[in-house]
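so the lab meeting is tmrw and i was supposed to have these ready like two days ago... anyway. pasting both below. for each one the top line is the aa sequence and the line under it is the structure tokens. i havent really looked at them closely yet so no promises
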Amino acid sequence: MNDTVCPTHVKREQIFQAAVAEFHENGFSAASMDRISARAGASKRTVYKHFESKEKLFQELIRRHWAKFTETLDVRYEKGRDIRDQLTALGEAEGHLMTSPEIMATTRLVMSEVLRSPELVEENQEKTDYKASFEAMLREAAADGQLCIDDPREAAEEFISLLKGKAFWPVVFGAPVVSVKEMAQIVSSSVEMMMRRYGQQDRR
């Protein structure tokens, strides 16, 4: 197969996108480097030049996928702004991802394959701390006197669990992706539960 002449970074991206399509269609185990090569319009030699194995391609998919969550959840605490509004904005940021059929389809793919083959996650790969934005906001809100929280990390885990309990894990295991309206209700009820437990007005 003759490779189409194009910049190296463009060819690498073409190969990656071809691999994504192959993984979605056939799963990791049944995915074929031959088909990835054909989809990308690249020789197998070129494919292996950019990605030394099918595992490396899937690890790149995992890295990019979770990076979307990290980037979207980069929400900072705003001193003086009502914490209920800020928690709602943070919940909506994650909710935006969980209402995306494309993102949740990739999430389902990644979770199912990693559960079957934990070795797909490199041992030395730095794990993204998805709780960091939640924890930071809750800690700063407590320091600012808007919330009464002894353990911001635990409170962050509770908030995340409220959001994911109905909109993430059910979808991973085959349920339909929640609608934007359903997600808004989930965010609203989750924020309300957090305020009832940690809001200053309920601690008086």
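ok protien two:
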Amino acid sequence: MRDLPQLLGQTTAVAMQAGGDAIAWGQLADLYGCAYAVAHRLAQPDLADMIVSRQQWAASQTWNPNAEVAAAWNEAGTYQSAGHYGDGLTIIDRAIVKYESALIGDSLETVVSLGSLHLRGVVLASRAKDRNAWTAHNERAKQLAERLPQDALRHNLTFGPGNQALYELAAHVELGRPDTASEIAQPLIESPPPGLGPSRIGRLCIDAARARLDLNEYASAEQALARAFEVAPEMAEVHPMSREVIRVLFKVHQRSRPGLVTMAKRSGLMPEL
């Protein structure tokens, strides 16, 4: 966060001086992707929307399909955050068609870019309760994930067999299948897939807690949430789904449980509860 303002200025200057250099403009687009992640995590939707516009501008300055994919992924994310899932799906479907028409080769970068678009489609379709779209995006993401031995990070996008499993798990929660989600979650929590960063593992634990909460397994839900706070505390403290699980647990579970009280305090929820 401290470095972003100066880096954005410097990288913009380099890209402007480089003319149509794909690498320079791609680096600027990636940096705007980092800025979007910060704004999104800190629940600043207006700022995130503005940053996506800047990222799209940088990605469009030269022929750089992977930079355009990252921008489309974040643009669809702004619609996801706003609850406009159908519009987000339209953006993803359009981006997939455009990217596939420009594909050259079958590199790691290509698999990560295309797979990430399908994962965004998995989330949007599940929240829209569009089971046909969910099945199509999920099956394609699985096929692409099978090409990678472990998850890889490119252009701020993480894709591979581990992240695909995490997105499928979350989708089952959204589609009203908490039993399936909980079954998928347990082995992933016990042995996290290689290549996944703390924020992804933390999100896995939050979704596992959501699934167990739907199954009225309150102690197990608290246990999964505690793991999220252990692995990715900064994210767990501010993530809306994590905070919602805490609120529900306080209503239906024992308020005197010290671990639950600690998580509520760290999230700043004690005055509300």
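from a quick look at the 2nd one: The chain has 14 helices and two strands. The mean pLDDT is 93. will dig more after coffe
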